[in-house]
Amino acid sequence: xxxxxxxxxxxxxxxxxxxxxxxxxxxxxxxxxxxxxxxxxxxxxxxxxxxxxxxxxxxxxxxxxxxxxxxxxxxxxxxxxxxxxxxxxxxxxxxxxxxxxxxxxxxxxxxxxxxxxxxxxxxxxxxxxxxxxxxxxxxxxxxxxxxxxxxxxxxxxxxxxxxxxxxxxxxxxxxxxxxxxxxxxxxxxxxxxxxxxxxxxxxxxxxxxxxxxxxxxxxxxxxxxxxxxxxxxxxxxxx
Length: 239
Fold this sequence. Notes:
The chain is of the alpha/beta class. The protein is built from eight helices and six strands, in the order αβαβαβαβαββααα. It has a six-stranded mixed β-sheet, with helices on both faces.
């Protein structure tokens, strides 16, 4: 088996396990795949598309990129990529600034407006699922963020129903580490440019990533342990 095929196989296998464990996809689903243009979302789109050829569950995909008005060229490049690969797609343009100065835009503001645009697009095109490219590292970092900065125990759920079940968020990469996606993306040669948030290197999320990196030096399984902790809660020892 070639190196690229091997990487793709193991990535798809982890995705398949997450899909099964959390019952993410059913026959007849129409899934909006949120594609930012980065490695995570492009890899997710390809894996979900490739799985359609051999899994018994039948589902449709709609790739959606939310163009938030940043000065990037990737919306056009992404459109060409979608056409070349035969993906059904939509580009949704929104004004992320809305009268605000760019320096005042927070992670919450950006995320909230992007999520709103995805919900609107899913409703417009009859999609009952939205697939996001969050991976295991994102989920683990979120657990620490909520613990350290919000004083609560919570995380990104691999599957989450919203609006009384009208829309379901799924995260098929829940068991996949970022380093695996990086390797896959390099082998597939995803070379699409994307905007980089000016706060990405100094955000609290980035700090949690550094904390985890340091902990891995003394506890190699720290990511898996943190991830599993939310499903292994000992209620007798809670306050």
